[in-house]
Known about the structure:
Structural class: alpha+beta
Shape: globular
Strand order of the largest sheet: 7-8-9-10-6-5-2-11-12-13-15-14
Distance between the termini: 27 Å
Helix content: 25-40%
Strand content: 25-35%
Order of helices and strands: EHHEHHEEEEHEEEEHHEHEEHEEHEEHEE
Amino acid sequence: xxxxxxxxxxxxxVVLVIIAVVLPSGSGDTEFVRLANMVPExxxxxxxxxxxxxxxxxxxxxxxxxxxxxxxxxxxxxENISNVTGFGIAGSEYRIRVYSGNFNTSRMVPAIExxxxxxxxxxxxxxxxxxxxxxxxxIDGEVFIGSRDDVQLCIDVSKGEAASLYGNKDxxxxxxxxxxxxxxxxxxxxxxxxxxxxxxxxxxxxxxxGNISNVTIFKFEDSDAAQDYxxxxxxxxxxxxxxxxxxxxxxxxxxxxxxxxEEEAYNSIYDELDYAVYAYYYDHDGMIPTIxxxxxxSGYDVQILDICALRVxxxxxxxxxxxxxxxxxxxxxxxxxSGCTGCSAESHYVWAVDxxxxxxxxxxxxxDANGEDxxxxxxx
Length: 380
């Protein structure tokens, strides 16, 4: 059974969908600024990951593997994945992907042409389009992938004919207040301020002293608007979160312990499924695949996610059922009951979905708590 559900548009949601990785503090800000200067302001937001951190940190090996599977594979147009140094996504619906790195573009061009069905010249730059209507252009040595219109808009930015996201003063002000890290997100521009009551926002995540810290900074029109936001948001924040107002700026900092390898593995699967659901939703006109059954999570009956349908999604799907997904005797009670295999009797998690996102419930005697969402101390 298919449900059509109104997925909520959450500002800076790319961070939640793509990134729940644990990274040490670093210095990816220079490459971030360079790429953010190439992203059109019209797209509204930009997420950047310093890929060198994933490649060089042994503790991040599982996240590095996930990144390759979701966004590249073993190579990008003839260049080995190890040559990628930075990766970005622009727009709230993943409208543009940006790959920066130590690329030999003359080697990449034949590989791009091989997968393309047509090409055109725009402002002196070649745009190749494949059979899935994805267009690719190499702009100032970096690879941009998206719709043809959006790629052309990026070329306009490179030619000085359209405004860049980082050219927005509010975005620059927010970014200048962020601490160092390997994950950066900024949002701003006219389209943002028309929808939300702040002018710009930025996020960074880093690790220090054995803890993960996430810092979000908002810039408002004035101090009164900032104070109103603090008043509204403070009661909804968890205990490990601090809120600080400085005139028209609001800083929200959350800190938590570094998860165990088992919890990190759970988080990685959560991100993988969440991204696949998000991609399926946009590929299928707002439809999300579920089976007839439900699971009770924190007192609510939530429909079970049809992982079989996600497996065959061309964009954002995956080739096999992820680790940790439980197989349970009987119909309509686990994620594989619509007809595929891959769920395991040795695993513990059943995944469900509602209007607000995806959840898991742990089944079996090893779980810390039955009927509750989230990692429950056991893996897979």
